[in-house]
Design goal:
about 180 residues; Rna Polymerase Sigma Factor, Chain: A; Arc Repressor Mutant, subunit A; RNA_pol_sigma70_r2
Length: about 180
């Protein structure tokens, strides 16, 4: 698909109508939404498992494209499907012995890459300490970049509840990260 392809400018609802019979329309949806799905998956299950989650999400979209009712925005639906796929992946995750883990590719700046990796790991551990509802709300807001109203729609709770979960989650994360020696 090229940038001059007319599919790239169509809104999601039109692409969804075209997708059952037009492969390029479905491709446009994947191209548009894959980065956000991957970001959310990478934070939730880790970068190594994120690709599998992304694939599962877009297979689910492909299966559902004919019957998608549009009760919610496609991006909202994709976030819910992504989170569900992540939760399934976490339940079935097997740990790999360190000696069987593949060697990482040599980063350009080993010091910076190590610091970033350490910070991501601390953030993941901090997120794991939150109650599931707070972790989901904070992840959807801070990682996926959703607005409060979108999170409320996605999770099926009131807007005030979303704000409260995010506020409490942020406070708990700040406290945990401060204790872990991470400074803003």
């Amino acid at each position: 698909m090229t940038l001059d392809d007319p599919h790239t400018t169509l809104p999601d609802h039109q692409l969804l109508r075209l997708a059952p019979r037009d492969e390029r329309a479905f491709e446009a949806l994947v191209t548009r939404h894959a980065p956000a799905v991957h970001r959310l998956a990478a934070v939730t299950v880790g970068p190594g498992a994120a690709d599998d989650v992304v694939q599962e999400v877009f297979v689910a979209l492909h299966r559902s494209v004919k019957t998608f009712r549009g009760d919610a925005q496609l991006s909202t639906w994709l976030h819910r499907v992504t989170l569900n796929a992540c939760y399934r992946a976490l339940k079935t995750r097997k740990t790999v012995p360190l000696e069987d883990a593949p060697e990482p590719a040599a980063p350009h700046d080993p010091v910076q890459a190590g610091e970033q990796s350490d910070l991501r790991e601390r953030l993941r551990r901090a997120l794991d300490t939150l109650p599931p509802e707070q972790r989901e709300a904070v992840t959807l807001r801070e990682i996926a970049g959703l607005e409060y109203a979108q999170i409320a729609e996605l999770t099926g709770v009131e807007l005030g509840t979303v704000k409260s979960r995010i506020n409490r989650g942020r406070a708990a994360l700040r406290e945990w990260l401060t204790r872990a020696g991470v400074r803003p």
